[in-house]
Design brief:
It is a single chain. A hairpin with a 2-residue loop joins strand 2 and strand 3. The protein has 12 helices and 21 strands. The chain is globular. The protein is an alpha/beta fold. The protein folds into 2 domains: about 180 residues, Lyase, Ornithine Decarboxylase, Chain A, domain 1 (Beta Barrel); about 220 residues, Alanine racemase (TIM Barrel), CATH 3.20.20.10. Strands 4, 14, 15, 16, 17, 18, 19, 20 and 21 form a 9-stranded mixed β-sheet that branches. It has an 8-stranded parallel β-barrel with strand order 5-6-7-8-9-11-12-13, surrounded by 6 helices. Strands 1-2-3 form a 3-stranded antiparallel β-sheet. The N terminus is likely disordered. It starts with about 25 loop residues before the first strand and ends with a helix. It binds ligand LLP. Ligand LLP binds next to helix 10 and helix 11. The site of ligand LLP has 22 residues, from helix 10 and helix 11.
Amino acid sequence: MASLEEHSLMSAGQPAAHVFPIGSRINEAGRLEIGGCDLVEIAETFGTPAYVYAEDDIRARARAYLDAFRARIERFEVVYASKAFPCTAAFRLLAGEGLSCDVASGGELHLALGAGFAPERIYLHGNNKSDAELEQARDAGVGHVVLDSFDEIDRLERIAPGQRVLLRVTPGISPSTHAFISTGQVDSKFGFGMDDVPRAIERIRELELVGLHAHLGSQIFDLEPYERLAELLAGIGRYPLLNLGGGLGIAYTYDDRPPSIEDYVDALLESAPDDVTILCEPGRSIVGNAGVTIYRVGTVKRIPDVRTYVAVDGGMSDNLRPMLYGARYEAELADRLGGDTLCTIAGKHCESGDILARDVRLDDPRPGDVLVMPATGAYGHAMASNYNAIPRPPVIFCRDGDAREVVRRETFEDLTLRDV
Ligand code: LLP
């Protein structure tokens, strides 16, 4: 398996490789390979659109987290934030790698348990957990519930007295990222503000408070706020567990240069006391660059002196991030990487805002081409919808030249399955 350092996709003259899964390469036929599988062949076998993952990439990043902690401290836990890619095959793989798991709903809890995550390795999050979710956690023997509000303290004491809990703190630190995915600031629906924390701790009678939690936000490149976080939490009181959340950013575009996992872990540990267990909750930085989405080009519309629209057979139903956060992505043709035709990649949905990427350069795109968008492994499948009654894409795992479908494509029949 290629290490993160050996991560070089392409020979000279090709676009930067760090947005593609580890081990990706251009094969003898000039086509892009992910996990040893030719993407043009994958498109023929499984159809498009499809989410295609390099299994080894997910493993390598999980191991990079574990190794980074292991090299620095003895007591730690790497908790997979499963909202990034709540897929049974991913849960299985990451449970097998020895990670713990963060779930943010009864549904994610159901999936994690079903995939074989030990309940005691699961952390349940949510700013408005229902009675049913808390009962589900209690009955399953979930290791830790992360308390998010005064109301929840009362609710959980009634439902699951004795439950081990962490208290979610909103530390008033806000790194720079999109406002929708920033959570550390005082004005947040999540957690207890610093002023409320003492009162919350006092209020807890029937629960076992074993730690504190904070999550600053997502897609963060600036490590400085993390350096102070452990110290800030430890200052609240001495508890055995400090969970410092997730949020390390990844490269979506060729110009993005996120910090390494090692540097991120360094920052997390910068002010951490020696006598506690440190937890972190990465989601995107484990699965984001492991996955690409493949589409088939259907139409190419050239508006002279204005723009060239390249329309693909998916769009905002399989990747909402460009529309929701203004997220930028790259795109390539699977068998002709590079090129200099300036293009806008449009989806097939019935609205003008259904644009997946702007100003990407392709090699003379034509109907029938397979188009690849890298870095779609996190929050793509997770936030997919059936808008315009489009069946959701399958998930394909590739490894050593073998491709296996781990989630099948939805069918039209699936679309009426819930009709009563
Ligand atoms: N821990 C907690 C408590 C979280 O709320 C999150 C993300 C994570 C960990 C993992 O963050 P990550 O390492 O993946 O950045 N849909 C948005 C992202 C929302 C993230 C919500 N919470 C997106 O597509 O960018």
